[in-house]
Amino acid sequence: xxxxxxxxxxxxxxxxxxxxxxxxxxxxxxxxxxxxxxxxxxxxxxxxxxxxxxxxxxxxxxxxxxxxxxxxxxxxxxxxxxxxxxxxxxxxxxxxxxxxxxxxxxxxxxxxxxxxxxxxxxxxxxxxxxxxxxxxxxxxxxxxxxxxxxxxxxxxxxxxxxxxxxxxxxxxxxxxxxxxxxxxxxxxxxxxxxxxxxxxxxxxxxxxxxxxxxxxxxxxxxxxxxxxxxxxxxxxxxxxxxxxxxxxxxxxxxxxxxxxxxxxxxxxxxxxxxxxxxxxxxxxxxxxxxxxxxxxxxxx
Length: 300
Hints:
Elements lengths: L6 H4 L2 H4 L7 H10 L5 E3 L19 H10 L4 E5 L6 E6 L1 E2 L2 E2 L1 H9 L8 E4 L5 E6 L9 E3 L4 E4 L4 E4 L3 E5 L2 E4 L1 E5 L9 H8 L18 H9 L6 H14 L4 H14 L4 H18 L9 H5 L3
Antiparallel strand pairs: 1-2, 2-10, 3-7, 3-9, 4-5, 6-7, 6-13, 8-9, 11-12
Helix pairs in contact: 3-4, 7-8, 7-9, 8-9, 8-10, 9-10
């Protein structure tokens, strides 16, 4: 993928209004001139037409024009995440269900209230676009039970005014429906995923140390966990330390070594501890012995 300009300043209202053009090529060239990489997708569909898919996306207007001369009816695709400077929360609507209820709960919780603009999809769903922060990686993911997908690094999206063939005589468009009147801010994809798909509720083992146990006791308990309970045990111990007021760095230092001694990788240990810290910190301090209310609430 060719290098481009700073995408965090490329997205202006004028750039977004390019989605309202009726001609796909016009929109594609306007985005390319703003430094935003695009690529052609199959007419009436979402499949990339270039050899390497979204990795071939270009912000060179001449290249973009050449693609549409070759495929004049092509739809318009754009890589999400760092290449384009935007992440997209995809609210699905299909026979199995709708993601609008889950999105509304997430919005009320402050997870997706910073969207920059909204696009209605041909299925009746919505793509909520968020401006990407200048650092960090947010990989694409799906939460099927919530009917919500996230398109970030490693993903792509189909843009207006592309059309999707829903039937022999039914062609529907992607349409820009709103531009934020509030100040947009990035979406925390990890926190949103935890909200939509929290760790399942499980009963703690009888040997779990009591609330208030010294960190070294919790670390020793984590180190004693068998293969099938390593992540679960680490999660519970990290919740206990967070609810007792310990900071993330302290928890990682105390429990990380213990987790690694059981065979967990550095990445697995840090991910589990970070997840427990976010949830326990958000839900409040411990209030009783045994399974804490904060930890129990994870499965609600």
